[in-house]
Amino acid sequence: MSTHILWLIGRRLAAAVLTLLIVSMVIFAITAILPGDSAQQILGQFATPEQIEALRQQLGLNQPAIVRYLDWLAGLLSGNLGESMSNNMPVTELMQGRLGNTLMLALVTAVVSVPIALLLGITAAICRGGRMDKCLSTLTLALVAVPEFLVATLAVLIFAVKLRWFSALSFASDISSPLEFIRTYTLPVMTLCFVIIAQMARMTRAAVVDQLDSSYAEMARLKGLGSLRIALVHALPNAVGPIANAIALSLSYLFGGVVIVESIFNYPGIASLMVDAVTNRDIALVQACTMLFCSGYLLLVLIADVSAILSNPRLRNR
Amino acid sequence: MTDKKLISGEESVRVFEAMHRGVSRRDALRMLGAAGVMAAGAGSLFGSSSVLAAGESTAPVGKRGGSIRVAGVSSSTADTLDPAKGALSTDYTRHYMFYNGLTRFDSQLTPKMELAESMESKDATTWVITLRSGVTFHDGKPLTAADVVFSLNRHKDAAVGSKVMKLAEQMQDIKATGPLEVTITLSGPNAELPSILAVSHMLIVAEGTTDFNKGNGTGPFKVQEFKPGVRSVAVRNENYWKPGLPYLDQIEFIAIPDEASRVNALLAGEVQLINNVDPRSTKRIEASAGHHFVDAPSGNYTDLIIRRDQMPGQSDDFTQAMKLLLDREQIKSAVFRGFAVVGNDTPIAPGSRFFNADLKQTTYDPDKAKFLLNKAGLAGARIPVIASEAATSSVDMAVLLQQSAKKAGLNLDVKRMPSDGYWSNHWMKHPLSFGNINPRPNADIIFSQFFQSTAPWNESGWKNDRFDQLLIQARAETDDAKRGQMYAEMQTLVHDHCGIGIPVFISNIDGVDSRVKGYGTNPLGGFMGYMFAEQVWLDA
């Protein structure tokens, strides 16, 4: 690999770190603006002013915001995310299991959705303008438009309540056999796939179509190559960058955007953890979750960027 | 309505105690029968008596074994096993699995002895509590007076962050006067101490406990797993001091915040018990062969607040007219689909202890209201009424009120406010608004918190000297009958003069897998007042 590519990747990394730093400041500022603090939230309606004051002291909420921010940032850099204010457990411990669950759900969803989406997108691009393409376009558009809570609720009603094939709830914790795994994961994964396959397929189609419209593809056609060959051998390698971006964008949704799916299936993932944290004004946890989402998002975009760079022959062969 | 309840666990314990006092087994069974018959005679919540009537059968009260999964409403990383910090129904439910209180509410909210064998006081100020002997914590440590002193004193420490600090402050001195004897001196007389000690926050923990995640109590279940925001697994305490209880081997407790998902989980057989069912979902539960719902009358109410310290609420006629404009029957049927009990503008729910049944029921009367409004010079006036989703169903109630007000020549302007911030920004701050009050364990607490002239949540800004006097006197009165009379008079005062309109008391609806037996109700809340764990069994 040339130094030029390393330089490009290095710049991307530096930008990501800077972004994270800015994000951390924004998070801190926003959580400071939220009405009420965790002392009030923990004590509830019956609290007396002395109680609130005592708890604030205990939680270190009396210190100026900048001190708290720097403390937190220093902890973050040393891998210490602090303690949850609402139940005194280390944030890392609270997040551990949840993160594993979220990654598992994301992984299964990705494994199922990416191949299907690519297949649909490329097929549509090849048959551009044909009946197949129109059919797929309409279908994906319709699916994108259906809210996921509707998909999830209908799926539960049909497959869990009526037919009893799959589980209405997904406890990621007690899975002991592959069959149970399927029972547990089918409905949430299906719901998520509905949303992201449609999105990914449309973006893939657009990327491939873009390449098919280019002059080299036309040249290939003039040379008498079949459209399947043009699409797979000539256009697809050049569309890897945009497709990787499309996949990264869709998958990043699996980190934070799955709140509805998590709540309908009672799946103990990281998104619902963060919703909890916000309602409890558990700032340490909110910050940790947000940083995690941002890091995950940046990581995916970074992977997409790097694969775009690596797949670009002009950069690769310089 | 489904009614599939048997004799409660509480009854069986009483019988067991009687046996220990030297009653023969035959007599004990007769007692069980009698308990059932009496309960049925009183139209009680213990339900059908036929099951164990007349002592002829030797059928066990419940069946041992089995495990169930239960879904509550809310769950977050703030879930706690520290009784003092319990904030939500899910917390209370868990606390009753792992801990016992000195006393315990029965289904009429009358406090019964639990870890306390007796509680005695001559003047309602100094209380001598004798503890039951032979009770052990989950870790094997025997229960002593020191544990009780520690548990109760915790609430007074601001750093603990107890939710009942205000209630505990009246316990001026708590000390052990014997290995199993605790003496509590109150700052003033309060005959209701036994019921204060029955609230879930007052459950007893072991002396010196700092880590509450182990749930080391004297309760029917032990903690096997507790993950805040995810689930808890409770397993039977083999050494539980109530013989034969609990029936279940294991209870897994989770929360499903989304109501539709909760009902789906029940119907799909994933969970066996749920609470907070929407009246709309009862049809679906009823249609399922293996499930039923339990409608539990409660003390929860959504009230119309008429500020008596501002116009137009300063006018007695206006206040009276507003109460007459509440179409209680319609609110009950249209808003709550029948899952409510008509209220009479006093916060004590029908059927609960000290309810004044002699009070004349206020009924819907737009004509009389029109007359009173004319008299007050408010005919044709336009008045805003504030409602919000935060106060259960208050928006629907406000719209119904608007319709009936029109008939009386009053224009109400319904203003719907967002839930977030409603309690701090709007509640009690407008001439006409809505509030929602959760059940409180006894009359004294509800009157002190919401109706006393000096109460911070005196919703309608109502001041009445006679009422305040009676409140103090009732606390000192150890004779239940006399105290009942005082509470009756106080209810009359509230009904006639206070600016609070209570059209209905809202019922709690639980969804139950029909294999779960022994399931009853309690006005304190769903899940049998959060105390189902010890008493239900599985008939699978």
Would you give an account of this structure?
The complex is a heterodimer of chains A (318) and B (540). With 318 residues, chain A is mainly alpha-helical. Chain A contains 14 helices and no strands. In chain A, helix 1 runs antiparallel to helix 13, helix 5 packs antiparallel against helix 10 and helix 10 runs antiparallel to helix 13. The longest helix of chain A has 36 residues. The model of chain A has no long low-confidence stretch (mean pLDDT 82). By secondary structure, chain B is of the alpha+beta class. Chain B is built from 17 helices and 20 strands. In chain B, strands 1, 8, 9, 10, 11, 12, 13, 16, 17 and 18 form a ten-stranded mixed β-sheet that branches. In chain B, strand 4 and strand 5 form a beta hairpin. In chain B, helix 9 packs antiparallel against helix 11 and helix 15 packs antiparallel against helix 16. Chain B is globular, with a radius of gyration of 24 Å. The N terminus of chain B is likely disordered. At the A-B interface, helix 2, helix 3, helix 7, helix 11 and helix 12 of A face helix 7 of B.
